[in-house]
Queue: 3 jobs
Job 1
Amino acid sequence: MNASPPRVLTQTDFDRFAALSRDDNPIHCDPAFARATHFGATVAHGMFLFSLLCARMARQQPEPVLPVGQTLMFPLPTFVADGVEAVLVPQEAHGGNLLGLETSIRCVQRGGQPLREGEQPVTALGEALLMTDAHAGALALLPPLAEAGQAAPSGDAALYHLRRGQQAEAGRAFSTPDIDEYVSLTGDASPFHADPAFARRRGFDGAVVPLPLLAGMFSDLLGTRLPGRGTGWMKQSLRLCSAARLGEPLTASVRIVRLRADKDLVNLASLVTGSDGRVVVQGESLVLVRNLEDKGEARAA
């Protein structure tokens, strides 16, 4: 087992990631709002925790690796003043140039006090898929995720203002300052996004936008548009299908595929596409809508 040195999280970290991802969901950024939820305090963005895992991947592997897939569940919240470790455990080889890891975020300090080993809760848990000796053409050979909701029961017709089939989308282009802030905030200095010359030698058109930033486009939509402010991420699966370049106009979309009114849960399919219509990231999400700020009429198209 390999763990990073503990990092003590701050509200400034949460606010910086909110500005970077555009997800200013009040469960992350508004202490007064968060105190009134079942969390009781502001909690870390799921994709911020994913970025800390990516930083650990970049430091631990002997050669540069490109994260191309990740599944994360969030069994417990991660709070301000929590000291956390990113833990990576190698899995059996996937074959070819793909490497699998068990990934987790473990809380080793709470409220400034160290926790004993048997009392250290896991706040994020999942599996990562890394590409070794990565180059631009290899991404096209990865198998896609199964379509979200394909085999799931239909669930309920409505939950609050939400309906199956509702969609929301947003566009943006990432810049060099975005990458600089990402590296500064997370410590993920992989040469695939921090060294444009290295990325070009691997066949990419310059620096590659990191997967946590691309998935942050989903975080923005889920936490501010659909389902809306107050949404909590329970589980996320991601697959990088092609590289996004800096300055490229990207479009992210989320679509409700299942509602579970008895548990306040919503399943969504998610997609990032490039300026030429190609799929950049495919994903699926499970979110909790118990704390929605607005449970009235829908605003998403």
Job 2
Amino acid sequence: MLIALNKPYGVLSSFTHESQSASDAGKRTLSEFGLPAGVYAAGRLDYDSEGLLLLSDEGALIHRLTDPRHKLPKIYWAQIEGVPTEPALAALRRGLKIQDYVTQPCEARALPEPPAVPERSKPVTPKGPTAWLEIVLREGKKRQVRHMTAAVGLPTLRLLRVAIGGVRLGDLALGKWRQVSVAEAFRDIEHR
């Protein structure tokens, strides 16, 4: 079974607080969304990030979805503080040294208009001009998009994952889920 969930802001990507830090006590978890028993998140989506989270009850499928060798693209929309320049976008595309690793090349572009996204439970309060970027990664390090945009002087204010492989968030309402097929997840993906 494969499930697509539109994870709201302020929700942990786990069902319990057991493996979380003490600071996570009392935070919302996936347990409140009526998901089928026995499913687990295929990867993570940070507490303060929103959007598409895939879950499955099949360990081999979770591994296939998350293993970077399969190069499953993940599409993010990032609201950033500042105005993106072509040199900053080019640096994101080439790859950046972040902490102890260098990110793989990715796709990055400024969105011409703000995307139609739902209101967030905690509104973003920018201090200056903002813009939206679309970033397509084929790897997934912890808080990678946030570290990348900060490294080029464009801190992320809001982050939504809108696609993983062939699964798109589309009009799936916030906090709702739907079953998807494995074929949908791997549609149009080159296997290497």
Job 3
Amino acid sequence: MAAMAEQDLAERLGGRVGAVLVAAGGSRRMGGVDKVFAPVLGQPLVSCSLDVLEACPMVDEIVLVLSTDNLALGRELVKTGGWRKVRQVCQGGERRRDSVQRGLDALVEVKWVVVHDAARPCVTADMLVRGLEAALETGAAIAAVPVADTIKVVGADGVITATPARSELWAAQTPQVFLRELLVRAHQAGDADATDDSVLVERLGSPVRVFEGSVMNVKVTTPSDLLVAEAFLRAQRATGGR
């Protein structure tokens, strides 16, 4: 049944899927440790996302984007790791959007693009499939989770200025899935920086669908996040990676 569902989704997508795995950040809050190659359950953090993208039948090719300092190490890792879908390991840019743009440029003949941050090692194949399903509706979809805490908008003076309705707030994650043509247009539309690619698509006035990510899909930013990610990865693997 799973194979039939995958074949059906592939037919509805109507073209190849490429993935840009972004791993070119500065790791400024990691206490001198480069998180991309920090060990997680005995393997470099970036390997976790590569394993999932490689194993997902929906993904046809991968471009890994690394900082200049990590290019040689990343190319050697891909060479020995056996990820056959990795088309290229390329150098990132000054900003995140520049790194994604270089990854986009390296993809060949794909209709859909999955953009994922290597700093989120707990991505699953199910999440990728949900993202592709959601993107079929609008051409753009992002993983996100409903916000559990009450959020306060606070001014520079430390005084609360607003309390948005929690029911309308979602915390954005990756993977994010786009029609390649739409994402290319969004990147070309202006040079302003953005925290993620969905912001660039939103600026075009194009709708972006949200699909449910996971509270386990944590972003590794500090050394303590590595411990949390390891615990979640153990739990995922104990239940078959779901």
